[in-house]
Amino acid sequence: MRETPRSQGTASDAEPVLPQPRPGCALAHTTGASGSGSPHRSDGRPPQTPRGARYTGHHGGPGTTPPVPGPSAVPPSPGPGPVPAVSVPAASVSSVFVSAVLVPAVLFALCTWQVAAHGPLRPLDERLDRALTAPSGPGATLLPSSAAEFFADLGNMTVALPVLAAVVGWVAWRERGAGATAARRWLPPLAAAVAMAAVPALVAPAKALVDRPGPPGPLADGSGFYPSGHAATAAVAYGAALLLLRPYPRRPQHSRHRALRRALVALVALLNLAVGAGLVRRGYHWPLDVVGSWCLSGCLLGALWLVLRRTRR
After folding, report:
1. CA quadruple 170, 171, 175, 178: dihedral positive or negative?
2. Using CA atoms, how far apart are residues 117 and 107, in angstroms rounded to an integer?
3. 211 partner at 20 to 30 Å CA-CA among 20, 87, 132, 289?
4. Helix (H, G, I), strand (E, B) or coil at 266
5. DSSP code of residue 66
6. Tens digit of each residue's pLDDT (9 = 90 or more) over 211-230
7. Cα separation of 155 and 273, whole Å?
């Protein structure tokens, strides 16, 4: 076959075809041999896109395709280091102090004022006492005399103080075995001892100031019955022992341990209620004497709870 020659006019009129970049090949931008700084391709041909039309990256610098991203909006995660302490708001601290210390103090002042000024609560208190101490009343049915005497004796210092001393010694020994610091080992027992020592220091002046006569019974001829020293001793001694034992065991998330803590709280509450009922039933104190002692003990236990809470944190 004979090939038909192409005409020269057609060959000369055809537009030059620019070479297309092959996939996977990078364009090299180098400086010319003359040192003029004009960029050109690695194959010697001029670049297809002028420098001014190129996409510029961050801060106007030469970019690439795709463009280089700027700084990420997500802050980098902090490296290992000490965790910053979380400050407790002042409002929460003040509210805890009010509920733990000031409220019992206000109630104690109210009871003292009613007893000393012969307020409306004092006649009601005396009628309640007669109903509870009557030989054939509901008090005799719920709490016989022998049981009332036993529970009233639990408020003696000869009974309550050894219980608190045993708990204090056990907590100090337990913290020493766990390698606790000196402040954590000795400050809670010392705070409990100070709360216990504050009972006679506060009860004795209040007795002398109010000078209330005793109820009908074996101590009817005496005076200085408000507030009850036995009720305050039992409340502070057994309550402080409960606060010292509250962090043990160390795993409060376990259901058995939570049940044990609730049982201890219920036991101490019932024990103090029985001590107060025994004192009233045996004619050793008026009911308001016991209630005033519980309010005073609430102030001391609230202050102790705040100290232990701060120490254990």
Report:
1. positive
2. 15
3. 132
4. helix
5. S
6. 999 898 788 778 899 999 99
7. 11
Which own/partner pairs from 303-310 qualify as long-range (CB within 8 Å, at least 24 positions apart)?
303/100, 303/101, 303/195, 304/191, 304/192, 304/195, 304/240, 304/243, 305/100, 305/243, 306/96, 306/97, 306/100, 306/101, 307/187, 307/188, 307/191, 308/188, 308/191, 308/243, 308/244
Residue 85: the pLDDT is 44
Q: Which amino acid is at 260?
A: L
The position carrying tokens 């307020």 is 119
Prediction pTM value: 0.68
Is residue 175 predicted with pLDDT exceeding 70?
A: yes
Q: What is the C-alpha to C-alpha distance for residues 111 and 109, in angstroms, rounded to an integer?
A: 6
Nearest-angstrom CA–CA distance, 172 and 195: 17
Strands annotated E in 83-156: none
Alpha carbon separation from 192 to 9, 43, 183, 242 (Å, rounded): 115, 91, 14, 11
Beta bridge pairs of residue 213: 223
Peptide bond into 215 cis (omega under 30): no
Residue with tokens 């719920």: 142
Give backbone dihedrals phi and psi of 273, rounded to 5 degrees, phi first.
-65, -40
Cis-peptide, bond into residue 21, ω within 30° of zero: no
The amino acid occupying position 247 is P
Beta pairing class for 39-40 and 30-31: antiparallel
Token pair for 228: 């009850």
pLDDT in tens, 17-55: 555 555 544 444 444 444 444 455 555 555 555 554 454
pLDDT digits (tens, 9 = 90+) for 74-129: 555 444 444 444 444 544 556 777 777 899 999 999 999 999 999 999 999 999 99
| pLDDT at residue 272 greater than cutoff 90 | yes
